[in-house]
Structure formats: structure tokens, C-alpha cells
Design a protein that fits this description.
The chain is α+β, with helices and mostly antiparallel strands. Helices cover 37% and strands 16% of the residues. The chain has a 5-stranded parallel beta sheet, sandwiched between helices. Strands 11-17-14-12-13 form a 5-stranded antiparallel beta sheet. It starts with 16 loop residues before the first helix and ends with a helix. The relative contact order is 0.16.
Length: 559
């Protein structure tokens, strides 16, 4: 039977929808909040901020963390910054412009009502984080500093050097810890959600595995919130940590939660290229580097061949023989084009033989012009930890003078190449962030709603904290205000029995295969199929071949 999706988008002009929604939604009074339990699965920026906010409001929160500490969530890997429409630079920014840039950057595939709300609450996020003590970069006079990111012609990105995600997560973690101390949030570390439990058509609990003991445990609540990130690790290699997985999201899908836009995966243009077959992941180099770094390949094919053979270095090629192809093709945005544009352009240059490393799958990101103009000290103040990270991995210092040609100083360029980084698709949610299963909510990268076909840089942190701090705390009340949902559901009900038996049966099935391959080898094969046939360039023939190989892989691991 076909299900009719109701997005529950409020009526009226897009700029007034969120204000009107908050003015007319149902609320739960403070005393009644004390009676209600909410499960939050995940402790990254979205999960930690949601758990802390719901606890502060008076709800009883059960927060599940797959790591040994919320501080190890993959949100810490975000480097460059977080967007907000503060217009501190007086360069023409506004809530509408942030909304427009986000919709346009997503190829007009995002839900506009959700995007406008995201832009609207972005300024509140910065105020919240500053109050928490997040050490954003500041200008000499003490004002918060901004820099530019791809897909925008204004400077609206707030940052903490090259570790913005880590600092924001520490801020959310401090708020979460305060609620744990106050007894409003109970934190379960080293637990993985294995299934969601549906009672009378509503999400009323989860089955989770204690990863220390291996035991399956049951938890009940009045609502369940999933904040477990995306499915980027389906690909190999990606910038995601190996601990990132979509187990929770897939279990929600199997219990009736629709998925939306799963083909929309982001390929980040500035990652350190693959350097061997023993890697488990790739390292992202922040998009912020494209503020002062210029992307280029040689103009001459013979120079590219020499670079691939190792007989030339990037610093040996003078300015007139360099093709700054993004600046040439997209003069209005230059090196700060959206990520999908930059990634496709790099692939096109490499496909035509202009790659600059031994595999032919890399382009240069060069800081020579900026260092010559601003000085090395200024550049290191902005990107010092990123330069250190690059040198640690590649043994090349991007801030080191490498050559001088006709009086022009050339520094070691970075080598970069696109890689899977983020997933715009995810669990379908309505305007209230609720899935097609009543009582089951999805926030952050886990849902599909805000970025369309391509996410702009510095918008992932914005969405995660917007959902957790400022959207879900309102919308979940509209659901929990229904007094029919207030009764406690015991964990000895048949629905919990069936869910736990199903999880145990699936574990037993997998363990009974007694195969000869490691999980890691299967993951690599899956990821290579996905990258080869469902990566940057997709064709009908390639997708059909990918499906054929995936079917063979699935059949091969059954015995």
C-alpha cells in the first residue's frame, strides 16, 4: 500500500513559517515533562546538543554513545567552520542570502522551509556556543572573525583555527555533562543500537548491545531520536572514521522509516590522495584552505608526465605554465566554488592526463601567492595545525620555500583529490524532524532535509546544532503533548521480546556462516564497487555492473 507523505510544512511565506509554527504548536508544561522519557541515540553534535537541551527542559533523557566518550564522536573531524548570517563583515549577508546560497548550492533539491529555518536559527547557534566558551577566532579588536567557504560570495564562516568541530563538540559535551551531573540525562557509553521497538504503531524503545559484555538490553521511552550520522562508510576509502556506521538508520528503515535521496553523497574536493592499499580512511584537508590556497595543474601535458614520473616537482613549474582551472572556468567564485563543482573539475583534469602524482589522481593546492602576499606567519596563524597535519601524513611541509624562479618564490604545494565525505540523503523526516514512524525522530546528518543534492561547506555543523539546540526541543513537544502517549511501556511486552529475538537471530545467522573472509576485506570490496560505479561519474552501464557485483558479493558472504 502506498503511503502518502505529509511534510507538515506550515502555511504562509517561507520567512514566517518557523515563527508561526512556534506560536501555534502544542507544548508540554514543566511538570508533565518530568514524566516523559526520551531516548537519544548518538552523542555527536546533533545528539549531544539534543540530549543536553531536552534534559535542561526537564525531560528524562537516555543517551547512547557507541564510543567510550561523547568527545570521540566523528563531529570532531570537522575542521573549517560553521556558517551563520551575522553579517559581521558588513558584506551584504543576511538570513535570506544564507538560505538562498544553501538552496542553490544543493541544486534546488532541498526542502526550502527547513532550509530557511536553518538559516534563521544560525545566529542563535553562534551566541549559544560563545556562551559555552567555544574559542572562536577573533579579530584584533575582539570581534568574532569570519572567513569564506565554497558556494558563497560573503564571509560568514565562524571558525576555531582548523579544529572547529572539536571545539563545538566540547561545548556541547560540557552542556551534556552538566545535565548528566544534574541527573536529567543518563549516558550509556559503548552501546550500539540494534533495533527500534514499535508498539501500537509508535516508536517506544530500542534494543541496544552492550559492547563491553556483548549482552542485548532493552530500553523504553515515550519517543526515540536517532542522531547517528550518515552512510559514507559504504564507500572505501572515505574521510569517515571506521567506527562510523549506519546500523541504527538501517534498522529504522527496516521498521518502516522511509529513506530519501540516498544517491546524494558528497565528494569533498580537498582530501589527501590515496597513498597505498593499507589505509583504512582518507584525511580531509579543510575547505577553508581554499581561501588562500589556489588549485592548479600544469598547462602542458609533458609537465604532468614529468610530475607523475617524479622527475619534476610542483615548485619547478613557473606561474605562466600553471592552469588555475577553477579561476579560469568560474571567475565569480574562483577556488571557492561549491564542492561538487570543484570535485568534478579535478576529476576531469585528471581524466585528461593532467594529474600530478604517481597515480595521476591528484591536483595541487598551492599557497605560494598568499605566503608571498601576507607572509608565512599570517598563513600559519590561520592554518598552522592543518599544515602540521599534512606534513605528518605526507612528509611535505606546505610552508617551506622550495624554489625561486625569476625572482618569484615558490613553496611546496599540497596534493589533493576528491573523496567521499558526507551524505546529504538519509532518513526522510517531516518539518518536525519526525520520520514516517510516529515517535521516531532523526536529526543531523542522519536525516535528508536540509542540503539537497550537495551540502555547502561549514553547513554540517550548523545543521547538527540547529536540530539539537533549537529545532527538535520545540517540535518534539508537538508530538509528546498527546496524553495518550504518556503511559509507560514495560520492556516485557511481546514487541520487545520479538525485537530482541530478531536481533539475536540475525547475530546467530552471521556467526553461523563460518566464512573465510574478514569483515574488513568485505567492507573494502563493497566500498571499491561503490566508488567505481556509484562515485563521481555514474552511467546506466556502470550502475548495472555495480548492482551485478554487489549481488555477487552478497551471495559470496553467505557461505
Amino acid at each position: 500500500m502506498t503511503k502518502i507523505l505529509d511534510s507538515k510544512i506550515p502555511a504562509g511565506p517561507v520567512a514566517e513559517k518557523w515563527t508561526n509554527y512556534k506560536a501555534h504548536q502544542r507544548l508540554v508544561n514543566p511538570k508533565n515533562k518530568l514524566k516523559l522519557d526520551v531516548i537519544v541515540v548518538g552523542t555527536g553534535l546533533a545528539g549531544a546538543s539534543a540530549a543536553a537541551s531536552l534534559g535542561e527542559m526537564g525531560f528524562n533523557v537516555y543517551n547512547f554513545c557507541i564510543q567510550d566518550s561523547p568527545r570521540r564522536a566523528h563531529s570532531i573531524a570537522a575542521q573549517g567552520g560553521i556558517n551563520a548570517a551575522k553579517n559581521y563583515q558588513n558584506d551584504g549577508d543576511s538570513v535570506y542570502r544564507l538560505f538562498y546560497d544553501t538552496v542553490k548550492g544543493g541544486d534546488y533539491r532541498a526542502r526550502e522551509a527547513n532550509v530557511y529555518r536553518l538559516a534563521e536559527v544560525s545566529n542563535d547557534i553562534i551566541d549559544q556556543c560563545v556562551a559555552q566558551g567555544v574559542p572562536f577566532a577573533r579579530e584584533y579588536g575582539g570581534m568574532l572573525a569570519n572567513r569564506s567557504f565554497g558556494g558563497a560570495q560573503v564571509s560568514r564562516t565562524f571558525y576555531a583555527k582548523g579544529q572547529t568541530g572539536q571545539q563545538l563538540l566540547l561545548g556541547a559535551y560540557s552542556s551534556l555533562s552538566a545535565q548528566i551531573q544534574a541527573g536529567k540525562v543518563k549516558l550509556y557509553t559503548r552501546y550500539e543500537m540494534e533495533d527500534v521497538v514499535i508498539v501500537d504503531g509508535h516508536a517506544r524503545g530500542i534494543i541496544a548491545k552492550n559492547l563491553v559484555t556483548g549482552k542485548l538490553e532493552r530500553f523504553t521511552a515515550n519517543a526515540v531520536v536517532i542522531a547517528t550520522g550518515g552512510y559514507g562508510n559504504t564507500y572505501f576509502l572515505s574521510t569517515n572514521a571506521m567506527g562510523c556506521n549506519c546500523t541504527a538508520a538501517v534498522q529504522c528503515y527496516r521498521k518502516g522509516a522511509y529513506m530519501a535521496n540516498p544517491s546524494y553523497v558528497q565528494i569533498h574536493p580537498t582530501c589527501i590522495p590515496v597513498h597505498g592499499d593499507k589505509q583504512s580512511k582518507l584525511t580531509l584537508m579543510s575547505e577553508s584552505l581554499r581561501n588562500d590556497g589556489r588549485i592548479w595543474v600544469p598547462k602542458k601535458l609533458e609537465d604532468a608526465k614529468a610530475l607523475q614520473a617524479g622527475t619534476k616537482k610542483g615548485s619547478d613549474i613557473p606561474e605562466e605554465d600553471r592552469d588555475y582551472y577553477l579561476e579560469r572556468r568560474y571567475p565569480a567564485f574562483g577556488n571557492l566554488v561549491p564542492r561538487d563543482v570543484a570535485s568534478r573539475a579535478a576529476k576531469e583534469r585528471c581524466d585528461h592526463g593532467f594529474g600530478v602524482n604517481n597515480t595521476g589522481l591528484a591536483v595541487f593546492l598551492d599557497f605560494s601567492e598568499s605566503i608571498n602576499r601576507l607572509g608565512i606567519d599570517t598563513i600559519l596563524q590561520r592554518y598552522g595545525n592543518l599544515f602540521d597535519m599534512y606534513e605528518e601524513i605526507t612528509d611535505v611541509n606546505p610552508g617551506e620555500l622550495a624554489n625561486e624562479i625569476n625572482g618569484v618564490k615558490y613553496y611546496n604545494p599540497m596534493m589533493i583529490f576528491p573523496a567521499i565525505h558526507y551524505t546529504m540523503g538519509g532518513i526522510w523526516v517531516d518539518y518536525e524532524l519526525m520520520t514516517t514512524v510516529p515517535g521516531l525522530f532523526s536529526i543531523g546528518e542522519c536525516n535528508f532535509s536540509d542540503h539537497g543534492a550537495n551540502r555547502l561547506g561549514a553547513s554540517a555543523l550548523m545543521q547538527g546544532l540547529a536540530d539539537g539546540y533549537f529545532v527538535l526541543p520545540y517540535t518534539i513537544q508537538n508530538y509528546l503533548a498527546d496524553q495518550a502517549l504518556w503511559a509507560k511501556v514495560p520492556t516485557d511486552r511481546p514487541e520487545f521480546d520479538e525485537a530482541e529475538k530478531a536481533v539475536s537471530a540475525e547475530i546467530d545467522r552471521l556467526m553461523s556462516i563460518h566464512g573465510k573472509r574478514s569483515v574488513d576485506s568485505i567492507h573494502k570490496e563493497l566500498g571499491h564497487i561503490m566508488w567505481e560505479y556509484v562515485g563521481m561519474g555514474r552511467t546506466k552501464e556502470g550502475l548495472e555492473e555495480g548492482l551485478k557485483q554487489l549481488k555477487a558479493l552478497r551471495e559470496g558472504i553467505q557461505h
